[in-house]
Write a structure and sequence with these properties.
heterodimer; A: 475 residues; mainly alpha; 0% strand; B: 492 residues; two-stranded antiparallel ribbon; 20 helices; 3% strand
Chain lengths: 475, 492
């Protein structure tokens, strides 16, 4: 008997862990008068780490547990990546969270959002998928408002919730058209029954648009910069790494499996959108003064580059995207970690404030530098390998060669604005504006992990090979 | 096996440099560079002992799978051309470390970046896998940005950014070329292996399509005419060691890439595009020479003359005769050594007079005879005095070019040969103004002659120049098997 329960519960172990953490946090909030912040944070981090490791432990294929839920080693790995990113973000937010009154609510919302993403990735039915999508989005809007005194923060939250619900509405419309077109919302049924007709194309376009909103692909990117700027830094980091990564994982499944019969149509759409995204992200990033806004446009460009890989064939595309997400996680969190530390201790968020940063904080400057170089795709950092595999996957179809060349040449502009920050960091003619910062222990750990990630994920080829094997088994 | 040490030694040097502190940094950097030279000598001895005229092209190979799903291998090996380039790199790195002996700002970072640059160059010269080659090429780009930005002078942020953007842009083109090659192989196996691709004989249309990507990509590194603009700014803003490295090694990466990849993998396209290569090279040679005449700053002068000299490399490659190809390799070595020496001499002069403007100097030979002599010798090598390296290299290229029966090629050769006269004009004028005559605006008592480390830096480079100048047959013997292979591929 016992064995049977376990059999049904086992595939949901990562979700159950998160749920458990959320419930315990809520109970602590109710029954404990003054919870020990440090202790609670470490405890949540531990839970996240366990969630990461369970993703690698005894994961089988489950299609028989539920009609709406699937699990494979690949999906468990994707969940572990998201949980690990959340763990790093939680470490980096240590200094900021210590001074928050509502830090338990913060964690409850953060974990709920993560839980929503887990549901979304595992969904095999659009109803369950939609529940996951909303569960991941709505807490994020509250998190964006967590600078309770700042007007900008509530503006960000408002913009986020309005555009997110708009996107959800479009997505729902797409689902209903899809149901009208083939009479089912199950992924497997759609993959086999979908054929090219105007209604299903319309349904696909609406559905696709709803998702592109969330990863801020041009022309659906307008909310990004304001939300990124207004939110607290670690929420921005969560938005730009975890939230985007989850939608990209979902897109992999949707485009390369569920809607693969519409391949001819979405290839062309995606090609135009990705070139637009890269161009617009690049051009707007050129002149940004605020570091968070700058990172907003930089992340738009990065998503454009990630979309390049979708033009390739299944396994290669999927492996390239997941690999790049891992690389992107480490490199982006290098940058956001430093911004977060500087912003919480000195309140400075402009690029110009980092003048002479290397003189006062050489270690932090190196972390920032590694992150930026990795984002720009410069060896020996992992970003080089990530970009190489993305573009290599994109060129697989020879007819797109010239388009991808344009994308590749855009790397020059990308590099230019990252170098602009590097120039500021190394300026030596004036005294440094930011004093020597104290780096507390959890933040140090997160930087250490990020540096190791940026330097090793590329050169150590077994990580890519591991992802490739998982992929190969999944498709 | 021994070839792998060429990569291990710089890596260990970098790691050790990161761990140690102040007084040991310079000696460790120098020790690493010298150890590298010793390993190269060992590689040479091993290579000479096993090579025979009709042997396989690449020797001492190591081939390990790296990213197996994509067929990316860690694959290294050497032939005569790579050994020559390795020697060039080692000599220049040692000289660059010596010349920076008195560097005080951020010493650790400086030597780490310098060693990282050298690591990229060594890797590039021995790699036999397109991915690996591309990886090392990029490794050898970005440290330059930081070197110029932190230790440079003048418009450093502008120059550093311009240099890196142009080089990365060319890398983007190279990437597209590499990916194009990868997918145009027969569908059963995609591979980055240079030797395998060379044996496959790519279809003519593919060669024609992909050639420009490689040619422009590597051409930017070699200061190909319309893409040469990063050279003057980059060289003049860089610190002395950086300029030596840029002119001595970085510009050679492109020439080596053209010889190794383009000629070997796309011989038929090379024949089709040869007239364009020769046209651009000739324009580069003549334009570079005239532009040099107009320069007032010593570093700018040397940078523009580099454009002219690297034009000779491209000319030799474009002519496709074995003599001209040998000349192109000789010119790469010769130009690397003499420009490095020239930049070293300019750096020594600048650190004493605090000016690089030609007209503000004069009569320096009386106060610093050693530095002055280095300056003169580098100049004479540059204008092609027999006995020094420039003469052997340029005469080989010109003789090789003249073997081409086509009239237009002969005209290009005449133009190139005539530019040597212009070289003589600006070199002799600079020597006359800077070293002879009366001293001008500064206090002569601050002018001291070279200290021991500067003397050694100069002497090491000078030995190289003399070996190429007096004993070129040693190099030619080393080069001939590789050149003959390329030649046989082209003639096929």
């Amino acid at each position: 008997m016992m064995h049977n329960y376990l059999y049904f519960i086992w595939p949901f172990k990562q979700e159950i862990l998160l749920l458990l953490a959320i419930f315990i946090l809520l109970l602590v909030q109710i029954f404990v008068d003054k919870p020990n912040k440090e202790w609670t944070m470490q405890w949540v981090n531990l839970f996240l780490l366990i969630t990461v490791f369970t993703g690698f432990w005894q994961v089988g294929y489950t299609s028989d547990v539920s009609v709406m839920f699937q699990l494979s080693p690949l999906i468990a790995f994707e969940k572990s990546v998201l949980a690990f990113a959340t763990y790093l973000i939680s470490l980096q937010g240590y200094q900021w969270l210590k001074h928050q009154t509502y830090f338990i609510e913060f964690y409850v919302l953060l974990l709920s959002s993560l839980l929503g993403m887990f549901c979304m990735i595992s969904a095999t039915h659009f109803l369950f998928f939609y529940v996951g999508l909303e569960l991941s989005t709505i807490p994020l809007a509250i998190l964006a408002n967590f600078h309770l005194q700042k007007k900008q923060s509530s503006e960000a939250a408002f913009k986020f919730i309005v555009s997110a619900s708009f996107a959800s509405a479009i997505f729902l419309l797409g689902i209903s058209f899809l149901y009208g077109s083939i009479g089912t919302l199950s992924f497997n049924a759609i993959a086999t029954q979908l054929n090219v007709n105007p209604l299903s194309i319309l349904a696909f376009v609406l559905l696709f648009t709803g998702l592109l909103f969330k990863i801020s692909v041009v022309p659906f990117h307008l909310w990004t910069a304001d939300v990124y700027q207004g939110s607290p830094v670690i929420v921005t980091a969560f938005l730009s790494v975890v939230s985007k990564a989850s939608i990209l994982f979902v897109l992999l499944n949707l485009l390369l499996n569920v809607f693969y019969s519409l391949e001819q149509i979405w290839h062309l759409m995606l090609l135009i959108l990705l070139l637009l995204t890269i161009f617009v992200g690049n051009l707007f990033a050129l002149r940004q003064q605020n570091f968070k806004r700058f990172m907003a446009f930089s992340s738009i460009t990065q998503v454009g580059f990630i979309l390049v890989a979708f033009m390739g064939q299944h396994v290669l595309a999927s492996a390239a995207v997941i690999y790049f997400v891992v690389v992107y996680l480490f490199s982006n969190l290098c940058v956001f970690g430093v911004i977060s530390l500087v912003s919480t201790t000195t309140g400075k968020e402009n690029i110009a404030d980092f003048k002479g940063f290397y003189q006062s904080n050489p270690f932090l400057a190196w972390v920032l530098l590694l992150g930026l170089f990795s984002l720009a795709g410069i060896p020996p950092t992992a970003g080089f390998f990530g970009k190489f595999f993305l573009l290599l996957s994109g060129i697989q179809h020879v007819q797109y060669f010239s388009w991808i060349t344009i994308a590749a040449l855009n790397l020059i502009i990308t590099l230019y604005y990252y170098l602009r920050v590097v120039v500021v960091i190394f300026q030596r003619d004036a005294a440094a504006e930011i004093p020597k910062l104290y780096i507390s222990y959890p933040i140090k750990v997160s930087f250490f992990i990020c540096i190791v990630g940026v330097l090793l994920v590329g050169v150590a080829s077994w990580i890519y090979q591991y992802i490739f094997t998982l992929d190969f088994a999944a498709f | 096996m021994i070839v792998n040490f060429l990569l291990i030694v710089p890596l260990i040097t970098i790691l050790v440099l990161m761990l140690i502190n102040q007084p040991y940094i310079k000696p460790v950097a120098l020790l690493g560079a010298v150890a590298q030279l010793i390993i190269i000598i060992a590689v040479l001895i091993e290579y000479v002992s096993i090579v025979s005229p009709h042997h396989e092209l690449m020797q001492l190979q190591t081939n390990i799978e790296w990213f197996s799903p994509l067929h990316i291998h860690y694959h290294v090996g050497i032939d005569g051309i790579s050994i020559v380039m390795l020697f060039l790199t080692a000599l220049i790195v040692i000289a660059a470390i010596l010349i920076s002996w008195k560097e005080t700002t951020l010493q650790k970072e400086f030597f780490v970046l310098l060693t990282l640059l050298a690591f990229g160059a060594y890797g590039f010269f021995i790699s036999l896998d397109l991915f690996l080659m591309f990886f090392f090429l990029e490794v050898a780009v970005v440290p330059k940005f930081l070197l110029i930005l932190i230790w440079g002078s003048g418009k450093k942020a502008y120059s550093a950014t311009k240099l890196v953007l142009m080089l990365i842009g060319s890398s983007a083109l190279l990437f597209m070329g590499i990916a194009g090659l990868y997918y145009n192989e027969p569908a059963e196996w995609h591979s980055f292996n240079i030797l395998q691709i060379a044996q496959m004989q790519l279809p003519f249309s593919v060669q024609i399509f992909l050639f420009p990507f490689f040619f422009i990509g590597f051409g930017v590194f070699t200061a190909l005419f319309p893409f040469h603009t990063w050279v003057p700014d980059g060289h003049s803003a860089a610190p002395t060691a950086g300029s030596m490295f840029l002119a001595g090694i970085s510009m050679k990466l492109g020439g080596y890439g053209l010889l190794r990849l383009v000629m070997l993998l796309m011989p038929e396209a090379a024949k089709v595009y040869a007239p364009y290569i020769i046209l651009l090279a000739t324009i580069g040679i003549v334009y570079g020479a005239f532009a040099t005449m107009a320069q007032k700053d010593l570093k700018y002068m040397n940078a523009y003359s580099s454009i002219s000299h690297c034009g000779f490399v491209l000319l030799g490659i474009g002519m496709l005769t074995p003599v001209a190809l040998t000349g192109a390799v000789l010119q790469m070595v010769s130009h690397g050594l003499m420009t490095a020496l020239f930049f070293a001499a300019i750096g020594m002069i600048y650190s004493r007079t605090h000016t690089r403007i030609i007209q503000e100097m004069g009569g320096l030979l009386a106060y610093m005879p050693f530095i002055g002599s280095l300056f003169i010798l580098a100049g004479l090598a540059s204008l092609g005095l027999p006995g020094l390296s420039g003469f052997t290299a340029e005469i080989t290229i010109l003789v090789g070019s003249w073997q081409q029966p086509i009239t237009a090629y002969k005209i290009a050769t005449i133009f190139a040969a005539a530019s040597i006269v212009i070289t003589a004009v600006y070199i002799l004028r600079a020597i006359g103004t800077v070293l002879m005559g009366k001293y001008k605006t500064y206090q002569p008592n601050t002018l001291t002659d070279a200290s021991w480390y500067e003397q050694w830096a100069g002497i090491i480079l000078l030995i190289g120049i003399l070996i190429v100048g007096i004993l070129p047959f040693l190099l030619m013997k080393l080069l001939s098997p590789a050149i003959l292979t390329i030649q046989s591929v082209i003639l096929k």
